[in-house]
Amino acid sequence: MPEKYLENCLYFTVNKLSRVISKMAEESFRPTGITPTHGFMMMLVNNKPGISQSELAEELHMTPSTITRFVDKLVVKGLAERKVQGKMSHIHPTKAGTEIQTDLEKAWKDLYRTYSDLLGDEEGKALTKATHLAAGQLES
Amino acid sequence: MPEKYLENCLYFTVNKLSRVISKMAEESFRPTGITPTHGFMMMLVNNKPGISQSELAEELHMTPSTITRFVDKLVVKGLAERKVQGKMSHIHPTKAGTEIQTDLEKAWKDLYRTYSDLLGDEEGKALTKATHLAAGQLES
DNA sequence: AAATTTCATTTGCTTGTACAAACAACTTAA
DNA sequence: TTAAGTTGTTTGTACAAGCAAATGAAATTT
Description:
The structure is a homodimer.
Chain A: H1 10-29, H2 36-47, E1 51-52, H3 53-60, H4 64-76, E2 80-85, E3 88-93, H5 95-99, H6 101-119, H7 121-138
Antiparallel strand pairs in A: 1-3, 2-3
Helix pairs in contact in A: 1-6, 2-6, 3-4, 6-7
Chain B binds a DNA duplex through helix 1, helix 3 and helix 4.
């Protein structure tokens, strides 16, 4: 299977794109002091204080164990706190957590601008949509 | 930034798709006894015995350190061997390595079929192409 | 009410991947 | 021909993410 064939493989191209855009996202979020995924999680917490971990898992499409670790980190960083109630954990933003929201939104917009400028606005949107759709179709 | 907004973010959708298709690829490659990425590496080695690690890094779009670890594993599994020559490492397939080539190709085809069936043949191709293009445009 | 099942979270362990620093071998120029 | 720089590989360390099993609480069944 000669060299160039790899780029006809969705597994391959998607993983590569994932690495590239992840690096870009880290760059955009650097000023906030947290990584992109932690940033998204924090925004979800700010958006709905008291959100449960399973809701976070649902939104972020990540497994519960990963969510636990990520919440741990937000707590250690003083951005959020866990209120345990029976078997549920409810996550609330701290003052510091509320305060970085603006930075997070800025970072997110910045990321959006960066890749949109490189891909073209419409192309970026189209790719995002296609990617989202495909992910949905493939998970079964 | 309310819930559904995440799906308008390329970083997000791409990472999700990457997780989904990686799982699918693992599934397809399970019969071969190695993971998809090791499988691709092995195919490259079979395709060009004596290939250097930097060539592998180039083809696979991965960093040299990652390549080292992956080659290590192929060696440990008895599928390949390193012939060190000066500062270069040349990777050759062993007998066992040559022998699993057919299985690897089958796994690869199987992966292709699986996602093409779910996405539609043309859509799958188009997405692959778009993804490849985008990765190229973004890495700068 | 006790036993069982279900559910949300946690913990231990594993894998993939990267970066930074180190190292080793080659190249070039004074 | 030695010093300086470059290039290919390796090693140490770290982090994201997952799985499987464990825990602890709630809900359901007997």
